[in-house]
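Preliminary data (for renewal application), zinc ion complex.
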Amino acid sequence: MKTFAERIKDLRKEITASIVRILANNNLQELEIPEEIEEPTYVVYFGDHGEGYDCPVKKVCIEDGALSLLVEFDEDGEGVIYASDLGCRNLDWLNGIRENILSTLELTYKRICYECGKPMDEGYCIDSGREYFCSDECLHKRYTPEEWAEMCGQGKTESYWTKWEDSNRWQDEP
Ligand SMILES: [Zn+2]
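Predicted structure:
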């Protein structure tokens, strides 16, 4: 059995890898988190003299597979948080950042996979669109085959696999 320290490290790696993968699946090296995102993730940025600022993540960047964050720590001060900094290591913050990325992508796309972030024209719809998953692999990371069978079986029709005919974008590209 792994120690808590090892398990925390594993989870941190897993969430970070998920963020990297979601951006890669959308051909993005960076993503700006716009102001209209309802629950932005606040992280602590340490200034030049070690003073801490509680500030929202403005942009998520991936360089050579490593995560970094751009934050705005006062009216005209921007700072970068690197993978080894606390801001990129705290599990709750990482999870919040991942959620913010999905919400940001949902401003462009009607349906993205909640596991891997791929925009979807076909796949699994959960509870009339509460969640989407692009493949069996992604679905079963969240729900076991037994749980899925129970969710979509016995005439319960809000969870199903389908192909959508409409454009996946809220606004068609010009
Ligand atoms: Zn997926």
